[in-house]
Amino acid sequence: MMSLVSLSLICFFLVPIQAQSTITVDLAKKYQTMDGFGTSETFQRANQMRALSPELQRYSLDLLFNRTSGAGLSILRNGIGSSPDSSADHMVTIQPQNPGGPNAAPKYVWDGNDNSQVWVSTEAANTYGVQTFYANAWSAPGYMKTNNNDANGGSLCGVPGSSCSSGDWRQAYANYLVQYITYYKELGVDISHLGFLNEPGLTTSYASMRSSGRQAADFIAILRPTLDRANYSNVKITCCDSEGWNQQAGMMGDLKGVEANGALGTVTAHSYTSQPGSPINSKLPVWQTENADLQGPWTAAWYSNNGAGEGLLWATKIYDTIVRANATAYLYWIGVQGGATNSKMIRISDDKKSVIPSKRLWAMANWSRFVRPGAQRVATSGGPSEARVSAFENVDGTVSVQVIQTGTASGAVTVKMGGNTFTIKEASAWITDNTRDVGELEVEATNDGGVKTTVPGRSMVTFVLKPEAQN
Ligand SMILES: *[C@@H]1O[C@H](CO)[C@@H](O)[C@H](O)[C@H]1NC(C)=O
Ligand SMILES: *[C@@H]1O[C@H](CO)[C@@H](O)[C@H](O)[C@H]1NC(C)=O
Ligand SMILES: *[C@@H]1O[C@H](CO)[C@@H](O)[C@H](O)[C@H]1NC(C)=O
Ligand SMILES: *[C@@H]1O[C@H](CO)[C@@H](O)[C@H](O)[C@H]1NC(C)=O
């Protein structure tokens, strides 16, 4: 539920106002339905969180998932391990040993911990009500692959074009992925989305498995009935977490068949090699499942010189992905970890005695707290020049309007409901900028039925409105 308790009922003083710009929200014109916002604690990052003091553990979890004091993230992406051990930052597999071939009885091993991803997941589900869990394998275990190694590329034995003396491992890999879901189910966490690839165009020194679109479609045709037989017909198969938006778009032709027959549930893409600028050609929900500034030195700033880690820039990246590229979910790479880069939104200090949120987190929060799962994006017109404007109708009837002012101009902005069929009963506005950290703004009623506040330069302001239909 939207935190309506914190909404301030506005006083309808009829003060004449010279509105400098007006945004009109059109609830009749609807776009995609949102699935949510999220992040990951994979590659043993969850272990770093769990090694913190109990107070800092709670603070970290609140920053990620709490809907009143944190970002209220609604999606957690977990890594399904493929490595034989947990050395370095390996994600350990649930079947380290080859059971003796693709048709042998499996020899699964479950430590109930999964590099602390179980802890983060059960906290997310039980304490904060998160319902969307994306379990995503980077690779199959090495013995199932052409190169006999879970790292360094190679492909799944049995897909078209593969050649393996060990046989066809496709059904064994599908069973293995289903077993991972079952381990979580037994702990009370329902995995909602399942991915079997990560960056399938990349061969690298950590877990990686190559796949073309055709090979992915071939495996999806096996995985879907395997899930259904195990009573997981509600689990959506994702594909393919390509490194960039354009690469994923390029795989869609080969995925048309599994899209049309319902086997594929959600299209997933990262933003490293190409950023989302236009929709991927699919009727399915499309998620942006991984992006981060991997290189830049740690910054917690909102705006200083438009550097790669700054909050305002991330607010606009989220805008482009949702409004221009039609995504229904946005995930930053890592939530909480140590180290001096921007690969995460929240940094564990080197002495491990503090946890430091960046404005990237608050940029995300200004979306994720107000655009809840199930919200539909709706049309807007007007707005200040240089601003990016978006609007969403939540399931509970509240409407949130985001105004990202990337320019320096400050000005009054009025938000109105279009069509004269709705009046605004309650409203609040929230600001993110360089200085404000819990920025609730005053809103005023305008004499034409709108609500108004000042949007300063280089800021993001979110209006939350409760419209009521007029009789
Ligand atoms: C979230 O934060 C608020 C405010 O600090 C706190 O009262 C609440 O207990 C926290 N936890 C949850 C699950 O909301
Ligand atoms: C399948 O799931 C349904 C709904 O969760 C449950 O009622 C049923 O017992 C399950 N069947 C099996 C075979 O697990
Ligand atoms: C946007 O995505 C939705 C699914 O979330 C799809 O139905 C719709 O066709 C897409 N629109 C465009 C313009 O691609
Ligand atoms: C928006 O961002 C600011 C940080 O600049 C943060 O303090 C504020 O809580 C965020 N708003 C919400 C509602 O998340």
Tags for this model:
single chain, 471 residues, TIM Barrel, 2 domains, eight-stranded parallel beta barrel
Radius of gyration: 23 Å
Structural class designation: alpha/beta
* Biggest sheet architecture: 10 strands, mixed
- Number of domain units: 2
CATH class of the largest domain, please? Alpha Beta
Give the full name of the CATH homologous superfamily of the largest domain. Glycosidases
- Rounded mean pLDDT is 93
| CATH architectural name of the largest domain | Alpha-Beta Barrel
Give the strand content. Answer: 25-35%
Gross morphology = globular
- Share of residues in helices: 10-25%
CA-CA gap between termini:
26 Å
How would you describe this structure to a colleague?
With 471 residues, the chain is of the alpha/beta class. The protein has 2 domains: 118 residues, Golgi alpha-mannosidase II (Immunoglobulin-like, Sandwich), CATH 2.60.40.1180; 339 residues, Glycosidases (TIM Barrel, Alpha-Beta Barrel), CATH 3.20.20.80. It is 22% helix and 27% strand. It is built from 8 helices and 20 strands. The chain has a 10-stranded mixed beta sheet with strand order 17-16-20-14-13-12-1-15-19-18. Strands 2-3-4-5-6-7-8-9 form an 8-stranded parallel barrel, surrounded by 6 helices. Helix 5 crosses helix 6. The radius of gyration is 23 Å and the shape is globular. The two termini are 26 Å apart. The N terminus is likely disordered. The site of one 2-acetamido-2-deoxy-beta-D-glucopyranose has 12 residues, from helix 8 and strand 16.
